[in-house]
Design goal:
Length: 65
């Protein structure tokens, strides 16, 4: 039964490689280093959070009326 476990571990390891490789090869990531991608993604997340906070504040104002 240990071979079954080895197969599962190998499948999981291969899946991780495939996902990692696919993310690096997307068109939006071409020409960017890992640090540049992280900075870009962090900036987008900050923008999303700010927008969500603003939407919540507007809903709170409308609910108070």
């Amino acid at each position: 039964m240990t071979r079954g476990n080895q197969r599962e571990l190998a499948r999981a390891k291969n899946m991780k490689k495939t996902v990692k490789k696919a993310a690096a090869e997307q068109d939006s990531n071409k020409g960017l280093s890992l640090e540049q991608r992280k900075a870009r993604d962090a900036e987008r997340m900050r923008e999303k959070q700010l927008k969500k906070q603003q939407d919540q504040q507007e809903k709170a104002k409308q609910g108070a009326r």
